[in-house]
Design goal:
Blueprint (H helix, E strand, L loop, with lengths): L1 E6 L4 E7 L6 E8 L3 H15 L1 E8 L9 H17 L3 E5 L3 H11 L4 H5 L2 H18 L1
Parallel strand pairs: 1-4, 4-5
Antiparallel strand pairs: 1-2, 2-3
Helix pairs in contact: 1-2, 3-5
Length: about 140
């Protein structure tokens, strides 16, 4: 079974899928998410095509641990994904993943449109890596 990490966004949603051993990130994707139903359909297809058995959706918390409106949107998205896939969905604290993703891309000289098209997949990878490390303990 593989695990999928998801960084839900207004315009783009980053997706990262583990390897079969659930030890590392195996592949990444970015799906357009301006239309939530289409984004869910795209993710369902990736789930089916890749043999995913569990989903991890990033939950954006404030630095003090509270949740704002963005967290509520992610909770709603996660509930829709759970219903559409029939798979368990774990909500994972994603504080600072987007900042870390931008730092990683800066170190590798990704700028402009190249960064814009990649940052969500990198953030999804960071969400998935954090969850895989937690599971491994």
């Amino acid at each position: 079974m593989k695990i999928m990490g998801i960084d839900y966004g207004d315009a783009r949603t980053g997706v990262a899928i583990s390897d079969l051993l659930c030890s590392i990130v195996g592949s990444t994707y970015v799906v357009p998410s301006r239309n939530t139903e289409k984004a869910i359909a795209d993710i369902v297809k990736l789930v089916q095509d890749n043999g995913v058995g569990e989903l991890v959706v990033g939950l954006p918390k404030n630095m003090n641990g509270t949740e704002g409106p963005r967290a509520e949107l992610c909770r709603e998205f996660a509930a829709k994904l759970e219903q559409a896939t029939g798979l368990p969905v774990v909500l994972w604290d994603e504080r600072r993943t987007t900042v870390e993703a931008h730092n990683i891309l800066s170190m590798h000289n990704y700028h402009g449109q190249k960064r814009k098209n990649t940052v969500d997949a990198v953030a999804a990878s960071l969400i998935l890596e954090g969850y895989l490390q937690f599971r491994g303990r």
